[in-house]
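Case study 2.
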Amino acid sequence: MGNATIRLPDGPRDPVEIYFSEQMPAVVTDPGTGRVLATFSARDPDWLSVILDFHNGLLIPGIRAGRTVEGWLGLIMIFLGLTGLYLWWPKAGQWKAAFFVRRGAKGLRFHRELHGAAGIWALVIYLLVTATGIAYGFPKTAGALITFVTGEELPHYVEGTPIVTASPEVALLGPDAALMAARKASNLPVQQLKMPGWKPGRPTLLPIIAQTGPGPGMRVYLDPYNGTVIPNPAPPPNNAYKLALAISRLHGGAGFGPIYAALVFISGLMPLLFLVTGVMMWLKKRQNRLAMSQPLPESILEQQASYRTHGIRNPRRPRR
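Prediction:
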């Protein structure tokens, strides 16, 4: 029997998800009837793994080095966002126009107004997601700041899970019995069950792990044979851990509903928009400067000379 992770539904209309190994397909079942609704691969496709690795460390060998670089880039992005707010700040009487792209805007004006309007609408979420991401680049500084704010140290979790002595003559608990035992042991709703596997001949096996919240401190360990509670060696989450978790969720868009998740997704596209519109503004300005530096055509010069010779005012020149 192999390991199985059972993700329980968040709501009455949500299904149960059962994960085995990456080589086996995951199963989606109806929580009421147990009927299999769908199967899917639990393994991320290669292209998605590359995107995740790029986001988590810019594909730089050693995740710590990559995240440090990302931390400095995040500080630059904060600086650009704040200076952009200063440059965008409209004059008196121009506030309404500053939030939109005017109809019929073209060329330099279009890119400038799109740059400013998109930036001001997305500024808060852009700064929030960027600032919370900087914590991953400088974890020690972020930890010290969290301790300063909460007055508590972040819990130090050591990798490790209690071990249970195998009893081949005793049957392992099933998921239903394990869920009942976990609910008796904790007043918090069980979010996920991890059922242990055991192969004949092995002297030990892992306990049943009932996850009631994020992190090792929110686990309930159960004896896989009789459902008795095994003490959790990890300290319970404190205020420092909860603040660190909130920072992580704010950055990742999890735990605050679909609207916030959509805003976080949009904020991830904003640097690309700023880059494109910024480059286009630079190109348009450069084209304008080059056009101004070019000599006038001979026909225009001859026409202006004719005006001066005959004492005729240039009709294109405004009166003073």
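Residues 273-310 form one domain.
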